[in-house]
Every structure is written in structure tokens, then in C-alpha cells.
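B., you asked whether I could sanity-check this one before it goes into the benchmark set. Here's the sequence:
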Amino acid sequence: MRVPKKLLNETAEAAREQFFGFMDAMRGELELVGTHTAAIRTADLGGKVAIVTGGGAGHEPMYGGYVGEGLADAVAVGDVFAAPTPDVIFEMVLALNPENGVVFVYGNYAGDNMNFDIAAELLEDEGIRCHTIRVNDDVISAPVELAKERRGIAGALYVLKIAGAAAKQGYNFEQVVEVSEKALSRVASIGVAVGACALPRNKSFNFEIADDEIEVGMGLHGEPGVGKTKISTANEVVLEICTSLNETLDLKSEEKVAVLVNNLGASTQMELLVANHALTQYLDNIGVHITDTLLGSYCTSLEMAGYSISIFKLDQELEQLYLAPCNSFALRK
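And here's what the prediction gave me:
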């Protein structure tokens, strides 16, 4: 039986150690909050609306990688695949001192929802205005009538980019909320897995997938997709994904999009580029223009083999905000 291997120290400390390594890479641009795996930007908010994110470790560079100028202002990270605790979120926002409110942007998972909601209630008691955006871009994870129950995956990157750019450009609280919600309504994602991931402390993989199988729609933690099938060609898989994404987005000729081919952890650049070619051909054939392409590791699941594809349908306002400058560990424009 194949056994997962990771080059770590104490496995129980992996989430903390990766966060401190991330902080080292930021070279003073972020400041730790107490002894927690949470940090705020050292740059002053300057009166703008604060954008705050977070989630479980194991999805690097999501979410810490998107804290920086023109993006998020703070991040709280939990243990591997586990939500940060309410007290850490609460202390982090107090350290940030957002005079004009805070907008939370994170993936739609039960633990994150509960803990961020508790923190938001505590912050409201302190007079800090809060609004929560639960990213639910994984269109396979629930039918359209249950869209609010869908999981959040790599499309969170687009919502954070829009929220951060809007806040930086001086949008007020209501305007940041409105444009961020609009961005969320126009992004759709689907993942495909060909190999499993394993938690650092586990000696077995989180799920099983045979050498000749593939699963479209699998979640970031091994949540089931549409079912396992025999592995097929990249073109066939990407066509299936794009068709499903378009059923949600209803793309029209001459519309503009941004696209993301996201490595889930263990796929090669070759596979991502092949997928991107098939994605580009699909959009070209329906007359949709690609404004920007991102390709690489943006939201991972430890060593899961596979990728997700996200399409973000732009309008004039969203395109301007998306292309606005930003600077963080994982995204620079």
C-alpha cells in the first residue's frame, strides 16, 4: 500500500511552522497577532474599509498569500483543514482597528461559518461594523436551488481581489459589500482530482482513487464530486468542466472573463498548460474574450493531484478593479 510522505518536523506543528515560514517570507510587511497564526498588514488602513480573510491550513497560498496592498488586510489560519478559532479572529480584527468596518471573505464551510460568525457578533458588540461574504464558487457541490450551500474553492481569489481593490480605491462600506457580492455572483469553479491528499499526521490518504480513475467535482478536502470515472483525455475533462461552468455563468459572445487554472498540489505545469489550451479554445469558440489568465498553485489541497478551473465573468467595473495594482506573496499586478 502506498504511504504518504512529507518532509516536516513535528506533524502537529506543521500548520504553525508553515505560517511562520510565510511570515518570514513577507519580510516585515505583516505583523503577528500575539502568538497566533494570524497577522495584519503593518501598513496603516488609512481609513479604508478592512478586508479580512482566513481558513484552514493546507490550502497554501490561500489565504495568507493574498494579504497585501490592494488585497486583504489580515488573515487568520487554523490547523490543517480546520477553521481559525473565534478568539483569534476577534483579536486579529481588534489589532487591525478598522474604523470604517470590516468585510470578511472566506470559503463556505461549516467550521469557518460558525467561528467567523461568533467573532463578528463579538466585534459588533465592540462597535465594529461587519459583513460576511461566504465564497461558494464550487458549482458541482450543490444544485442551483441550493447555491448558498456550495463550497468555496479557488474562486475566492477573485472575490478578495475585487474587495481589496474597491477598498483601496475608497469605496465606502456599502459599496465594497455590493461590488464584492457582485463578483461572487459572477465566478464559478470546478475541480478534478486524479490523486489523493493526506493530512500531515495521517499515515494514509484522505480518500481512495484508483490509478485509472478520475473524479470531477471533488472538493478541497476530498468531498465527493459527481463520481469516479475512468480517466479520459484532458480535452474531454476540460470540455465537461467548461460546459458546467457555462451553465452557471451563461457566457455570451464578446463578453470578457478572467480565468484560473489552479494546481491542487501535485499536478505538473505541463498538465495545467494543456488544460489552459483546451479552456482557451472553448472560450474562443463561443466568442468570449480572456482578459487575464492565472496558472499555477493558488488554492491547494496538500499533495492532491489535479486542478480546478475558475471563470470570472467581468463587466466594466469588475475588469477595472481586477486589473488594479496589488502586491502580496502569491499575487502581484
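One thing to flag: DSSP finds eight helices and 14 strands in the chain. Otherwise nothing jumped out at me.
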